[in-house]
Amino acid sequence: MIRKIIIPVLTVIVCFSAKAQTINTNENPKLVVGIVVDQMRYDYLTRFYNKFGEDGFKRMVNEGFNCKNHHFNYIPTKTGPGHASVFTGTTPKYHGIIANDWYDKYEKKMVYCAEDDSVQSVGTESSDGQMSPRRMQTTTFADENRLFTQNLGKTIGISIKDRGAILPAGHTANAAYWFRGKSEGKFISSTYYMNELPNWVTSFNKSKTVKSYLKDWNTLQNIETYTESGADLNEFEGGFRGKETPTFPYDLKKLSKVNGGFDILKGTPYGNSLVIDFAIAALKGEALGTDNITDVLTVSFSSTDYVGHNFGVNSKEVEDTYIRLDKDLERFFKVLDAEVGKGEYTVFLTADHGAVDVPSYLRKMQIPAGYLNNKETKAKFAAFLMDTFGVDNLIENISNDQIFLNHEAVKATNKTLTEVEAIIVDELINYKNVYKVYAASTIHNSGFNSGMEQLLQKGYSQKRSGDVLIIANPNYISYSKTGSTHGSGFKYDTHVPLLLFGKGIKHGETLQKTVIPDIAPTISALLGISFPNGTTGEPLEFVLD
Ligand SMILES: [Zn+2]
C-alpha cells in the first residue's frame, strides 16, 4: 500500500526535475537583449555623460558592469563583421563575414554579406527583403539558445539595416526585421524566416508611427548647452540635400522629398526611436520574456552610423543623436521592467565599430591625417605591374584594402604566387600614406600574438580574403572631406563600450582589456548553454554574479 502511494509522488518529482534540467531553470533570465549601437565610440559614453539622464546609459553603468577597455580585435572594423563577431564570439577568420561587401573569388563578383537571391522579400515588392544569414559560417549565441531549448526560446532580430538585424539573430531565428524606406516606410523580412508578416508587424506598418517622425529635427536641449561638440556650422560636415547649411533645425517632411522619402529617417535620431517603437511592439507581439525559457531579442541602432558618416564625430548632430538615444533607452528599459520584470532580463550594449575624427578637422588641429588618392595610386601601380611582369591582367579586384590577383595570370609570369606577392609588397610599401603591406602567405603561414599583424590575421579568411593586404596611415581614409568613417585597426575604430546589466550581472567596472568575441561566450556561460561553434573569445567571469 505504501509503495503505491510513494511511486506516483516520485514520478512527479523526477518529471519536474528532468524538465528543469533540460529546458531551463528559474535562475536564468527570461530575456536577453543584445544592443548594438552602430558607430558608437567608447568616448561618446564619457563625452556626453553629463548630458544623459539617470535611466538610460547611466542606469547600465550604475546598476551593471562597465568594461572600459573593450576593443575590436580584428580588421576591418565594419558593420557586417562587427555584428557577426559580437554574436558569434569570434572574428571574420572563422565566421567568414570579412566585410560588408567583398569580392568572391569563386563567383568572380562582389557579394553583399546578407544578400540571398534564393529567398524572396516579405512585406515589400522591392528586392530589399532578399536577405539571409547564409554567408555567416558559424553560430550565434541565439542559435545555441534555440538548440538548447528545443526551439522553445524565441529569437527576434531588429534593426534599420538588414545586416544589423540578420547576422545577430543567426541562422535559427524566428524572425529578423529591417526597415524599408523610400515611399514605403515599413519593417520587412524575407522568406528565409516566414511567408508573411505576423499581424503585429502589419499593424505597426499600418499605424501612423513611421510617418509621425517626418517632423522637425531640432536639438532636444538648448543648443547653447551642447558644449561637448564643435560649432553647428563648420566645414567638416555633410548635410542633407535641399538645405544649404548643415545646421539645426531640419524640416524632415520637406527634406524627405529630395532625400529618398522615408530613407531620410535613417540618418536622424528618429531612426533609433523607430527601432525602439518596433522592438516594444515585438516584445508584446511575440510575448518575449514571459516564461522561464530564455528568449533573445537583438536590437541594432543604425542611425548613429548614418549621422556619424554625414556630420562627423565632433558634430552637434552626433551629440543630439546620443542625447536622444539615451532617452530611447530609458523608455525601452521601462517597458522591459513592466513587461518582463525588473531583474528578470539581461541587457548588454556594445558597438559594431568606432569612427575616426574627420581627417580635415584633425589636420587643422595639426594631427597627421588625410585622404587617400586611390586613382593616382592605382595608375602608378598598374604601370609598375606592366613593367615588372609584362602582363596587364594580373589584378582581378581591389576592394577593402586587399588586392585579389588573377591566379591564371600569375602562372603566365613564370613566378610563384608567393614571389609575385612579395614583389608587390616591396613596391606598395613605398607608396605615399601606406603604413603596412602584407602578403596573404605571410598572414596564413605565421601566427601573430600582437599588433596590427594580429588584427589583420583575425580578420583574414583563407578562402575569402585577398592576396595582398594594405593598411593606410592612421587617420587616412578613402572618403569625402566631410563626415567620419571607419574600418581600420586603430584605436578610434576598435575602442567601443561594453555595458551589461540585469539578471546575473555584477555591479562594477574594469580597465582590463576585453574584446568583442568575449561577449557571446559570456552570455552563453550566463545561460549555461553551449558556446557558439566558432567561439574564440573567453567568458568574462568578473561580470557574472
Ligand atoms: Zn558606417
From TrEMBL:
Pfam families: Phosphodiest (PF01663). Gene3D superfamilies: 3.30.1360.150, Alkaline Phosphatase, subunit A. Substrate binds at N100, K161, D162, R163. Residues 1-20 form the signal peptide. The active site is at T79. NCBIfam families: alk_phos_PafA. This is Alkaline phosphatase family protein. SUPFAM superfamilies: Alkaline phosphatase-like. Keywords: Metal-binding, Phosphoprotein, Signal. It comes from Neotamlana laminarinivorans. One of its GO terms (molecular function) is metal ion binding.
